[in-house]
Amino acid sequence: MAGLLRFDGKVALITGAGGGLGREYALLLAARGAKVVVNDLGGDMHGGGKSPAADAVVEAIKKTGGTAVANYNSVEEGDKVVKTAIDNFGRLDILINNAGILRDRSFAKMSDQDWDLVYRVHLKGSFQVTRAAFPHMRRQGYGRIVMTSSPSGLYGNFGQANYSSAKNGIVGLSNTVSKEGAKYDVLCNTIAPQAWSRMTKDIYPPEIEELMKVSDVAPLVAFLSHDSCSDNGCVFETAGGWSAKVRLQQAEGAVLQRPFTVEDVRDNWAKICDMSNPHYPTAATETTMRIMPDLKKAAGMADEGSEDTNGGTGKTMEPVKTVFTNRDAIMYALGVGCGVTRTDLSDLKYLYEGHPDFSVLPSFAVIPPMNGVMGKVLSGGIGNLKEYNLAQALHGEQYVELKRPFPTEGTLYSEGRVVDLADKKSGALVVVNAETRTESGELICINQFSIFIVGAGGFGGKREAPNLKPTLPAPNRAPDASRQHKTLPSQAAIYRLSGDLNPLHIDPEFAALGGFKEPILHGLCSYGIATRHILREYCGDDVSRVRAIKARFSKPVLPGQTIQTDMWKEGSRVHFQCKAVETGNVCLSGGYIDLNNSSGPAAGSVGGPTDSLRSTAVFKMLGSQINADTVKKVGAIFQWNITKDGKVAAKWTTDLKNAPGAVYPGPPKGESPGCTLTVSDNDFEAMISGALNAQKAFFDGRLKIAGNVMLSQKLSALFPSNQAKL
Ligand code: NAI
To answer: What's this model's pTM, rounded to 2 decimal places?
Structure first.
């Protein structure tokens, strides 16, 4: 049957599966090919007694040709429960935390024992079993976890203080597990069911028995357990065949001006409670990011982090807009020496936008604020620095901190502010911080430029620059690793196309005026080369590992010379120094790159829920439409990179090679794609609906195809409108 969701090869563990809802999950998953561990200690619904209830379920599964084993441990012994799955089947793919008891009492009469027992089974039990299962799932890079909450947990209920708070705790547990598991494709969702079972039969009116059967809940739970379901960190209410996603809603709210009083809260109450313009945050940071600018304004603060010290103007400049595409990222990569040969394609991911892991070098983060912001700051008057000659301004040091992997294209806004102005007598040291954000306000990176203006000292300011990120000396030992890169004679000519058009780097006459024999290479070009060296040496070219880069520009390098990066690894910090091999001159000193300990979501990977993408629903729809016929016609696997705001927001696979065909999130499992298609979320939907001609999208550069382009012609078989011919 077309699109039948199977669980062949998967191992599922269901707690409390000796009866009620859990039994239905076990029967359904086993009937669809899963090997099932039926856990149940077989107690009564208040947590007492024991019985071999799980045996009967195992027998029922075996009778119909399925595979199952029983486990009688309490969920409080999570390790033992999970061990049964590993010992019998060697793996664990699906965990459904379902076991539960009730000990209802009015709040005033609730005993410690009522409280503790309910917590031990529901919240601690879910934790124990999940903790035991998680390492197996993480190691195999796959897992589906379903937790069981309750409408009582979401909304509260009379007589259920113990139960409702434990059930709400399970939502919190699920939220965190979903965040920690996402990058390993270990997804975790929660259901809040209602069904006629021994647990509820005394509470519900009799007609519920017919209307809300335990078997009605099982299909939703099975879908959440299937690899075609990419929802993560979500809560679903379900009863009698009705299912609905539930999410938190947050008012726009009000930010009160400091100093504020209780009366200010009262006077703003309507605004605080006004739900007419709601937000739906899925992470605490989303809210922090959203309110931060208003909080700063209310607190009379101009900028994040660093204090405005004497001499700094303190004022934030108008944001500078940068629209960039993957061409700019590629141009930058060429500028810092990326290249490919027939035998070495390691840099292809920085040079080819169709590469499945197309990535932007982290040091590219210096580019957006480089020109606009620095020009504005330096020409707009700097604190009490009266007279200065911009021709005497030297770029002394550079620091950049990345909040996430740099997007591959998009519109960014950079805001700069002088945070220090130090009087160094021979000159003025100006330290400028620049924050770069997306249009939606997400902070992408913070740059710090330190500029030394020769001859501008003696203006009577402080000598120190307390906000300057320090350079750090390398450890006193031979380098742990060294890499070399021979720059091209035209390296500066290429690098300048990323925006620093100073003639010093291209015009021999201009360079001579500055006292140089010939045009010199941009210091930031060496900075990019050093970043590449460290990325390759210590990060396996995973750009998400780079958190911050700092270095001082010591001496110039000439285009054509060889840059050697010496590296020292100390924990999560790599110290570095660069020199020109031909002269021995150190060109970058005191440098370091701070690494994220584990790789974060790559620019192109799904970091969180994808349900905000329009394409998610379309892929799910496609999944239900493919059949053996489609597979026969097409015979190929396609990977889709769906972009949003310039970065890859989701990856999907349409497997039209292996019968019966499949559509699932993420890159192809076990096989390389025949071709990879990269397209924005909106354009994908428009293509599928026929509103956008796919061929035109391809020729306009809106649809990018890598790999065997001819294969994409066959995709029209998949599109229901058949207008989306490639
Ligand atoms: P049930 O009582 O039929 O099933 C619960 C199962 O968990 C029982 O078979 C029991 O032996 C087992 N169990 C209890 N403690 C255990 C432990 N420490 N270790 C292993 N197994 C244990 O009840 P039902 O209705 O099937 O409930 C399943 C889950 O759904 C529970 O978590 C419950 O709180 C939840 N739920 C059910 C609702 C309903 O309307 N039936 C409403 C909201 C939530």
So the answer is: 0.52
Of the candidates 25, 142, 163, 527, the residue annotated as catalytic is: 163
How far the first Cα of the chain sits from its last, in Å, is: 28
From 158, 145, 164, select the one nearest 82 (Cα to Cα).
145
Per DSSP, which regions of 582-701 are E strands? 586-595, 636-644, 647-656, 662-665, 675-680
Tell me the pLDDT tens digit for each residue of 520-529: 999 999 999 9
Q: From ligand 1's centre to the CA of 79, what distance in Å?
A: 20
187 three-state secondary structure:
strand
The pick from 73, 80, 170, 197 for probing ligand 1's pocket by mutation, whose C-beta has the most ligand atoms within 8 angstroms, reads 197
* pLDDT digit string, tens, across residues 80-104: 999 999 999 999 999 999 999 999 9
Cα separation, 713 vs 715, in Å, equals 5
pLDDT value of residue 84? 98
Domains of the chain: 11-246 (3.40.50.720), 320-595 (3.10.129.10), 614-723 (3.30.1050.10)
Six-digit token pair at 301? 């603060």
- Contact residues of ligand 1, CB 6 A cut-off: 15-16, 18-22, 39-43, 45, 53, 74-76, 98-101, 121, 125, 148, 150, 193-195, 197-200
Report residue 631 as tokens: 């597979």
Q: How far is the CA of 88 from the centre of ligand 1 (A)?
A: 24
Quickly list DSSP for 627-655: -HHHHHHH-EEEEEEEEETTEEEEEEEEE
163 flagged as catalytic: yes
Kind and range of the H or E element at 218?
Answer: helix 214-224
